[in-house]
Structure formats: structure tokens, C-alpha cells
Amino acid sequence: MKKGRKRITLELLVLLPGLVDVVIRALNPDNATSPEGLKLEVNKVDENHLSMVVEAEDIGTVINTMNDVFACLQPLLKLLSKGGIS
Fold first, then answer.
1. N or C: which terminus of the chain carries fewer CB neighbours within 10 A?
2. For the chain, what is the domain count?
């Protein structure tokens, strides 16, 4: 990490089998179009965990990006709450 940049790392526990891969696929299109200076990594740790790293020049961008990530996950969570993925 370059000096002065801000970073947040979040590890998520995923309780449903196979859902880690679904979450990674859901977030990767956004990752492909990240603005210059913004780094978003989503990686599979194991079958039940994934890690997300957001890095940017300022903390506001990091926080806004994490909010965007959670907004992208909302449709998936709604689908899961209705039993949509097995």
C-alpha cells in the first residue's frame, strides 16, 4: 500500500454452501470498472469465507465504496431470504 492511502479489509462468513462463489461473481463486474486510484479486491478465503479489500486515496472513497458493495449485495440477500438460491 502506498503511503497516505486508506485501506479497509473485511472478511465475511458465508453460511450457505456455494454462496462464496456467487458473491464473488456478483461483485466482479464492478471491480472490472473501478475508477483510477481505487482498488477493490474480492477473494475466496475458503468455502465459507471471502475477503474484500478496498483501498483509495481518502477515507471517504473507501467508505462510499464499501456502501456500494453492500448495495450490490442487497438483491442477492433479498433473493436468499425468499429461498431463491439452493
1. C
2. 1
Residue 18, pLDDT above cutoff 80: yes
Query: What CATH code is carried by the domain that includes residue 12?
Result: 3.30.310
CA nearest to 70, candidates 8, 5, 6, 3:
8
Q: Is the pTM of this model over 0.85?
A: no
In a domain, 73, yes or no: yes
For residue 51, give the C-alpha cell. 475477503
Give the phi and the psi of residue 43 in degrees, each rounded to 5: -130, 145
pLDDT digits over 38-72, tens only?
999 999 999 999 999 999 999 999 999 999 988 98
**Spatial distance between the Cα atoms of 84 and 50, rounded to a whole number of angstroms:** 21
85 beta partners:
none
Are the beta carbons of 15 and 48 closer than 8 angstroms?
yes
